[in-house]
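User: Just a sanity check before I run the rest of the batch. Below are the C-alpha cells for the first item. I only need the designed sequence back.
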C-alpha cells in the first residue's frame, strides 16, 4: 500500500507542476470591470482501503502541492478554469484506475476564496480499473 501511495503522490506532484506551467496567461483589460479575488484549491481524500494515517498523509501532501498554485488576484472565471483544468488532469492521469486499490478512492476537490466562500467542488472516484467524475 505504501508503494501505491508513493506512486500516486509522485504522479500528482508531476501533474500539478504541468498544470501550473501550462496555465499561464493574461486577463483582458477590455470590456466591463472585472472583479478579482484570491482563491485556493483544497482536496479531501477518502476510501481506497487506506487507513486513517495513510489518508491523512495523502491529503496533507496533495494539499501542500495544490497550495503552490497561484490563484491570488484571479477573476472568478479564471479560477474556475484553473480548477476545471486540474480536475481534467487528475481524471486523465487515472483514466485506467489505480492497481491495488481495495475499494474506490475518492478525491473531492474544492475551489474556495480565501475568505472561505465555496465556489465549486468536484468529486473524482478512482477504482482499480477506471476513474470517473461526478
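Assistant: Here's the designed sequence for the first item:
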Amino acid at each position: 500500500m505504501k508503494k501505491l501511495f508513493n506512486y500516486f503522490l509522485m504522479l500528482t506532484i508531476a501533474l500539478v507542476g504541468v498544470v501550473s506551467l501550462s496555465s499561464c496567461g493574461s486577463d483582458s483589460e477590455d470590456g466591463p470591470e472585472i472583479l478579482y479575488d484570491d482563491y485556493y484549491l483544497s482536496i479531501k481524500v477518502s476510501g481506497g482501503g487506506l487507513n486513517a494515517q495513510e489518508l491523512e498523509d495523502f491529503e496533507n501532501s496533495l494539499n501542500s502541492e495544490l497550495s503552490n498554485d497561484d490563484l491570488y488576484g484571479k477573476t472568478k472565471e479564471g479560477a474556475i478554469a484553473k480548477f476545471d483544468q486540474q480536475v481534467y488532469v487528475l481524471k486523465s492521469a487515472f483514466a485506467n484506475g489505480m492497481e491495488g486499490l481495495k475499494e474506490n478512492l475518492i478525491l473531492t476537490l474544492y475551489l474556495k476564496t480565501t475568505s472561505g466562500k465555496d465556489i465549486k467542488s468536484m468529486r473524482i472516484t478512482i477504482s482499480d480499473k477506471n476513474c470517473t467524475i461526478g
